[in-house]
Structures are given as C-alpha cells and as structure tokens.
Amino acid sequence: MAGHWNRERARGHRGFPTLTVRSTANNERIPAMSDPNQTVTGGCLCGSIRYEARGAPSQSLICHCRMCQRASGAPFMALLFRSSEDVKVTKGNPRIYSSSPTSGRHFCPDCGSPLFFVRHTRGLCAIAVGSLDNPNAFKPMMHVCVESAMEWPDIHDDAPRYATKPEGMTPVVDYDPVTGTVT
C-alpha cells in the first residue's frame, strides 16, 4: 500500500493536508470486492491468526456506533459482511468475546487485533476491513449509526448516512460504553 501527502491539491478539513492512498505501488487496478468468485484473506497484527473469506460480500459499511468504537479502539469500524459459512480461520485460534446476545467478536488472543464478528441470528460475519491483507479495495455502501459518530473525522465519500441502522438490519444494541454492559 503506497500513500503520499498530496501537497499540490487543496488542503483538507481545517487546513490539514489530505492523505491520498493509491491502489498499489504501481497504481494498478484492484478488483472490486463484489466479485462472486473472489477470495479475500486477512489476519492479525502478530500473524498468529489468519483467515479467508470466499464469495461476494452482502454489505460493506462504516459503523459509527459506540460498541464498534470501543471494540476497535477507533472512531469507526469499516466492515465487510459475508455469510458466516464463507469465512474460515486458516491458522490459529481466535478468542471470542460475546459483546451482545447476538454477536461474538473474534480477536487474536496474543496481540488483541479485532478480526471479525459473527451475528448468530443472521448467519452473517462482519470482517474488520483493517484486518484484510488488501483493504484498499473496500468501498462503503453506507455509514450507519452516525448519531454517535465522533465530530472530528472528515470522511469524504458519497455513501449514504443513516442516524441508526436502516430498516432490515439488526437493531442497534443499547450499549453503555462506561460499564461495557448491554441492556
């Protein structure tokens, strides 16, 4: 992944430089994540856990909910949804934390990297885009839970934004970020 500070273009939010990330070091095209025959791979920071996911994703989104913020340690979580049956751990044994009655978050027990979470009630696996070997092909279809988005990130994309979650998605869990409890 090659990135550079783009000093020749207009300044970003509040006058800070805009970071431009190219597809690859040679600017070659990265295949879209909607290819039904695609296999993506990923893993944790220390290399103890590896996984692969086959087939086209059912959704790609950025979630701004407080639970995703706490689980990732970041202002939001970029997620790529696949059928749970299409995601397989190929190396190591992730630890699972039940963050709600419907979800188990898989992470590396050695380095703590979040990998994915499984929605038991829907048969879906949400892959943490930052854990992918090639995260540059990710493009969000939407932003959800923007009512709890942090104020300072300045994200430029044309994906629609939803205050909570659109109809048909798993409802937002009532989560207390101070106590870590789901009510």
Give a written overview of the molecule.
By secondary structure, this protein is mostly beta strands. It has a single domain (37-168), classed as glutathione-dependent formaldehyde- activating enzyme (gfa) (Alpha-Beta Complex). 4% of the residues lie in helices and 35% in strands. It is built from one helix and 14 strands. The chain has one helix spanning 66-72, and strands at 3-6, 18-21, 39-43, 50-54, 59-63, 77-83, 87-91, 95-100, 103-107, 114-119, 124-128, 142-144, 175-176, 181-182. The strands form four sheets. A seven-stranded mixed beta sheet has the order 8-9-10-11-6-5-12. The protein has a three-stranded antiparallel beta sheet with strand order 3-4-7, with no helix packed on it. Strand 13 and strand 14 (181-182) form a beta hairpin. It is globular. Mean pLDDT is 81; it is low at 1-31.
Topology readout:
Layout: E1 3-6, E2 18-21, E3 39-43, E4 50-54, E5 59-63, H1 66-72, E6 77-83, E7 87-91, E8 95-100, E9 103-107, E10 114-119, E11 124-128, E12 142-144, E13 175-176, E14 181-182
Parallel strand pairs: 5-12
Antiparallel strand pairs: 1-2, 3-4, 4-7, 5-6, 6-11, 8-9, 9-10, 10-11, 13-14
